[in-house]
């Protein structure tokens, strides 16, 4: 086991996490043995930041994490997400935005992960895409949600509060609650959340982008296909994916990544972004990509 953290470290509330962590969502689609292999390898490689949610399967992913890693290393930071629930329907997710539903999801995490406290819980808002958009009873004031999460934190059931899929105004509104991280869609090709990134940087909040390499599910293009990325990768002898991830890390020091995979080989490839040095020529070319 290595003592080094991939990509260095960044502060996530009171925790020091690797700048390249692991998003566990794809483990929903593998068995316990295959999930265990990926999780054990992630920890061996110095990853101490796992991102999960009770609605990744009917707590399937949480169960894989518990089976592989419990009792957990003292420095392992498991981050979960609330705001949706798993349903048996053609669309397997439904929103669960009301305060009592957020509390229910936290208890699901505690039980399925075998934790007394979830270190960080992200509130996933649903005011806009990608994904489900709130309607009717699922439209809940942010302050009501924050009040419930603050109560859960005061009770010791969660350690800290994060936000996901939020606007600049919402982030400013939530700052007094003590936000430790923000997860928004962000990549070389999609920098629409740059104002939120800069607000996070100014307040010492970890920026943890999702879809850094695009997403087929939401028909979001991958920056790996961009000519500037491919030219830079060829010149540096790196993969296009490593170049895209390395750009995000170089762009702001408050950033941490949680690329997901169900493959040990792909996990190891993602971590090569930590060793991909973008020289001034590369940074200038990538910074100039039209967005």
SSE layout:
Blueprint (H helix, E strand, L loop, with lengths): L8 E4 L2 E4 L3 E2 L8 H13 L4 E3 L8 H10 L7 E6 L1 E3 L6 E3 L3 H15 L6 E5 L17 H13 L6 E4 L3 H7 L4 E5 L10 H9 L3 E2 L19 H10 L3 H12 L12 H8 L8 H8 L4
Parallel strand pairs: 3-4, 4-5, 5-8, 8-9, 9-10, 10-11
Antiparallel strand pairs: 1-2, 6-7
Helix pairs in contact: 1-2, 3-4, 7-8
pLDDT under 50 segments (min length 5)?
none
- Please report which band the strand proportion falls in: under 5%, 5-15%, 15-25%, 25-35%, 35-45% or over 45%: 5-15%
Name the helix and strand elements from N-terminus to C-terminus, one letter apiece. EEEHEHEEEHEHEHEHEHHHH
Main sheet strand line-up: 3-4-5-8-9-10-11
Treating each run of at least 4 consecutive H or I residues as one helix, how many helices? 10
Number of strands: 11
Helical proportion, percent range? 25-40%
Taking the alpha carbons of the first and last residues, their distance comes to: 40 Å
Radius of gyration: 18 Å
Inertia-based shape: globular
Structural class: alpha/beta
């Amino acid at each position: 086991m290595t003592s080094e953290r991939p990509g260095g470290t960044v502060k996530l509330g009171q925790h020091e996490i690797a700048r390249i962590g692991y998003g566990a969502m794809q483990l929903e689609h593998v068995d316990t043995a295959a999930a265990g292999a990926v999780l054990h390898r992630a920890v061996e490689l110095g990853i101490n930041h796992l991102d999960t949610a009770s609605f990744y399967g009917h707590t399937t992913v949480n169960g894989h994490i518990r089976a592989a890693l419990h009792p957990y290393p003292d420095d392992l930071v498991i981050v979960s997400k609330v705001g949706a629930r798993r349903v048996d329907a053609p669309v397997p997710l439904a929103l669960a935005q009301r305060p009592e539903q957020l509390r229910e999801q936290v208890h699901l995490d505690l039980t399925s992960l075998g934790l007394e406290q979830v270190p960080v819980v992200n509130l996933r808002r649903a005011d806009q895409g990608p994904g489900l958009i709130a309607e009717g009873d699922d439209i809940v004031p942010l302050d009501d949600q924050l009040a419930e999460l603050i109560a859960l934190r005061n009770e010791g059931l969660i350690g800290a509060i994060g936000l996901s899929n939020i606007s600049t105004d919402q982030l400013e509104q939530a700052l007094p609650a003590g936000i430790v991280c923000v997860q928004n869609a962000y990549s070389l090709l999609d920098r629409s959340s740059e104002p939120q990134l800069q607000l996070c940087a100014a307040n010492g909040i970890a920026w943890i982008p999702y879809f850094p390499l695009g997403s087929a599910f939401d028909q979001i293009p991958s920056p790996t296909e961009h000519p500037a990325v491919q030219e830079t990768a060829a010149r540096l002898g790196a993969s296009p994916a490593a170049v895209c991830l390395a750009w995000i890390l170089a762009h702001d020091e408050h950033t941490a990544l949680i690329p997901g995979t169900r493959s040990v080989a792909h996990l190891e490839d993602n971590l090569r972004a930590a060793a991909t040095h973008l020289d001034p020529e590369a940074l200038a070319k990538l910074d100039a990509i039209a967005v």
